Amino acid sequence: MEIEKSVEDLLIYKSVYAKDTERKINEEFPHIQEHNYLDHAGTTLYSKKQMIEIFSDFQTNFYGNPHSLNASGKLSGDTVDQIRFKILQHLNTTSEEYTIIFTQSATAALKNVGEYFHYNNGGIFAYTQDNHTSVLGMRQYAEKFHCILNKDLNDTFQSAYPKLDKNISDTNSLFVYPAQSNFNGAKYPLEWIQKVQNGCLNHLLPNGKSTNWFCLLDTASYLGTNSIDLSIFKPDFITISFYKLFGYPTGLGALIVKNSSAHALKKRYFGGGSVQISSSTTDFFVFRTNLHQSFEDGTLPYLSVISLQHCFNLFEKLPITMDMISKHVFNLAKYVYNSMVVLHHNNGQPVVKLYHDTQFEDITKQGGFINFNLLRQNGDYVGYSEVLHMANLYNIHLRTGCFCNPGACQYHLQLTTSQLKKHFEAGHICGDQFDLIEGVPTGSIRISFGYMSTRREADVLLKMIEECFITKPIIKKIRSNKTIQMNGHKVPIEKVLPQNGFKNSETNKDCYKLLNIFIYPIKSCGPFSIETNWYLSNTGLMYDRLWMIVNHSGVCLTQKQEPRMCLIKPIIDLDAKLMTLTFPDVPSISIPLEQNVIEFKPAAFCQSKVCQDQVQCIDCGDEIGNWLEIALDKPGLRLLQQYSDRISPKKAKEKTELSLANEAQFLLLNLKSIDWLYNVMENKPNDLTIDNLVSRFRPNYVINGEEAFEEMSYKTILIGDQYFEFVGACSRCQMICIDQGTSEKNAEPLRALAANSQGKIKFGVYLKHDP
After folding, report:
1. How would you class 192 by CB atoms within 10 Å of its CB: exposed for 0-12, middle for 13-18, buried for 19 or more?
2. Which of the following is catalytic: 200, 311, 404, 511?
3. Full-model pTM
4. Class for the domain spanning 325-484
């Protein structure tokens, strides 16, 4: 009873907002609907009122280029200046002490300092291990650099050092660190700023030399949920990302420069608006004397800057303060952290490996982030790609990988440099889904909260973990120590997924039968079952994934965004050369299988993308476009037909031509493998049949092998008189959780496959035709 009471006390969530404030905030985000957004460190969300007021402003006022001297240009220029004052006021400072320089992004602001900082022969660039990739890029402009490791931070900033007067040297050095880690939300002391400026890092220089130290504080991750008082803490340079504060506008950041430190930036390039005079025939130019004008090359994105006034106004109208937001996100993160700490499998092994140096007891040291990986009952890691697929099923938006912070990732995951290089040699690069290499994670999972986040969203995440990644019954207990011990014995995948070889390739015994052939004429829509002979084309089966549906922006639509696409059923009539489409409660429609290209106007030819490859297409017209809009209840839909064969750059060495299929020309399933999966599913829907399960995997060929998963070892297969070559196993995602007959979702197929294959979610094999 004592433990239960302690656990219960640990899981208390304390609300910060008043009920009326919560109601007002919720009303601002009708576009979120059933989504659970937990990626505010990536970008926070724009609100309804914010966008209405921005575009109402644009419709009411006439803003021109601020470089022009006409009335509309002057209005823009004056309004932009007011925004500069507003930002400085938000940071509790004035233009007397700091200058706002607008940039394309926080990264562009960092690049500006990196490129223009004047080390003056002998200075050094120093930075903490926990820093964004964009900071690491700054060292390319420095002659010398030094990374202060996480393990050395306390000694570096707590040890005694002689206080030095400024300007004791003719060299300049620069130190960069984040106010808050974008990896796990750790907050670093703002008191470091003055310590650095007073010379606490002089020991990094050789032979007892001294230098003038400047400090750049990266606040891109920090300012969205925290405030900074520049009347107390005075960094020389600050970088800001506005979409992380307000969700909109994107493509806008700022470099804030302490006026007394501006001399350390020696700008070289000049562009339109940043000079008083320039000559085209001689190397003669004079920068503008105004600091922000001399640095802001070209025309500002002035409409984006002007929109900021409505972003700041929203906080006042709700009303909420940055202190309230900071407490709100901290309390949510603390609630999730404590909820994760107590989760254990039925054998007492912990479920979650957390990457934090705090236990969420001090808001000055921790922000609203949770960074973690999940563990199996035997202590093995769950790949973050598997978690991402399951999160998509629960409409949870989170982020996986290393979050453009390789230093923090390496430190917290305890990866050696040799391991990092080994991961790269194995094919892992930044931003991919290559999550486990020899059982070692290459990254982790991050959730982060914003001012509009709710406990309901946090509970959905915890529900997903409990339903999909814990061996029942769940044990909730307080751990005796902070670190997770992984003592479980690893179960080799071969013991779970038998792979006994392609027997008839050795015995030449004709023991298999081709049970079904399916094509999917429209990418991500329903199948057409082939009952007679069919034709092979140079991209696969004739008419397989020859069409695709795109949204109003020309982006390919799939069942991941619109599950009801599976209800669009095609019927192909080769004699009539027509494809008829059906959808429940909507009259059917027919389109020709072969388009007469000569009849099409130039506007009908267009480009789209499939798996990052550009594809040439023809728009099939308004009639079918209108039909799709009615069926799927989405405006702006169009049906495109592939016009020319696609050779993926990834497949260039194989010279394999592709239709609009994702990875390969054909997908083959073994019915014995389907039987295995059906039997290991613990919570399968009552109406789930073998045929229904087959349809979820969307195969082209279904065979009756002798043993489950023997297809994984195939090299070639002969179907009729045609040879097909094995080109890889198919990695599975949340698509297999969509019932192709009803469009309803159920997480069980993916959960069962992941749980019984140690996270290696491979099912079915890719083939290519070998003429």
Report:
1. buried
2. 404
3. 0.79
4. alpha beta
